[in-house]
Each structure stands twice: as structure tokens, then as C-alpha cells.
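User: My collaborator sent over this chain with a note saying "see what the structure looks like." That's all I know about it. Can you take a look?
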Amino acid sequence: MINIKYKSGFYYLKSKQKLNTTLAKSWDFFSTPKNLFKITPRHMNFEILSDFNSMYEGLIIKYRVSPFPFIRVGWTTKITYVEKPFGFIDKQISGPFAFWEHEHKFEEKNESLWAYDVVKFKLPLGFIGRFFGGKIVKYQLKNIFEYRKKQLDKFLKK
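Assistant: Without extra context I'll predict from the sequence alone. Here is the result:
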């Protein structure tokens, strides 16, 4: 389930996915930011520029990504919150959005493991950005999260 709504100047993407793995294996996968490459569509030419082995509050991660053909942008995020093994939050420091904050949450319920994502974001250029880019960005993000779901089903197995 993936939905995106606009409220009070921000878009909110919410995603929920059942993971076929344990909480410990899920944390190992998600807390290794280099695994983001494995769950990002290839056409986005995702590249991690930072070198690190573990996730911690204050970690700065630099990327390069192609949100559109022939357009390559830098993106820097900071891990602002970590609660091992239940979740973390990354926030854009610089990049393509006026604002980006992504909460990753993992919860065991009725012998199942669920991953929840809440992304709060704002497009650049205010109304003009929303008018010209809103539908395109929503479409792209839904596709990215759908791709991610398929990849997680492939990589995360008990």
C-alpha cells in the first residue's frame, strides 16, 4: 500500500509492507545504507559517494541520482534519529527537494514483520513546483516504492 497526500504545504507519502524476514535481518539490511542501491531502480543511476559501515545518529550520506533522464543531482542526507532495531529517520540537508524527511519504522505484529515508511516532502519553487512537478514527482515516487517492494521481497527472506 502506497499513498501520497498533500496537506498544509507538504506532501506525505505513506507505505506499508509485510516483510518475509526477522526484525534482526531487516535491521541489518536497512541499517546498511549501501543497500539502498539494491532497492533503487537502475534507471535512476543511484550512486553513494560516502564511505561507511554502519548507521548512527548524525551520519551524513552523500549520493548522486538521476531523477529524470540526462539530469544528475547531488543529494545529502543526515540520519537524525536511530532506534535499533525499530527504525530511523533521514533528513535531506541538500538536494532536489525543498524539504525531505523519511521515517523508516519496523514493527512485529501477530508473528509478522511490517515496514512502514512516512516521507514528508516539499517540492522546490512553491506553487510553480507543485503545479508543474507535483504529478510527475508523485508518479515517480510511487514507482520507486513499488520497485522497492519487489526488491525487498527478493532480498529479505527468513
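A starting point for your reply to your collaborator: The chain has a mean pLDDT of 91.
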